[in-house]
Amino acid sequence: QVQLVESGGGLVQAGGSLRLSCAASGRAFNSGAIGWFRQAPGKEREFVACIIWNGVNIYYADSVKGRFTISRDNAKNTMYLQMNSLKPEDTAVYYCAAARNGYGVRIEKSYDYWGQGTQVTVSS
What we know:
Elements: E1 3-7, E2 10-13, E3 18-25, E4 33-39, E5 46-52, E6 58-60, E7 68-73, E8 78-83, E9 92-99, E10 113-114, E11 118-123
Parallel strand pairs: 2-11
Antiparallel strand pairs: 1-3, 3-8, 4-5, 4-9, 5-6, 7-8, 9-10, 9-11
């Protein structure tokens, strides 16, 4: 049983910050990878960031490098996405996800479990 629930989204002005949380149940943190995707209106869902099971290997989309930081707290079964210097183009529904295997971690279809999403809106 794996359940992922995102929270922390909201409305923020450009240049501001938000921290998203993903509360996990089951064995999500034992998955090959856990990460974040986002989907803007009218666009395909895209990779944002992920952590491989060992907590050491971390990957970011080029568009968020230097601005976003992914982390997890195993004791709290929670994953975070700290988003700084937000831009209007960051506006999207953000989803947390877990993959049973650690291959193709930048690909949406590689992930097996998904949260329901949390809306992030960045105004200019």
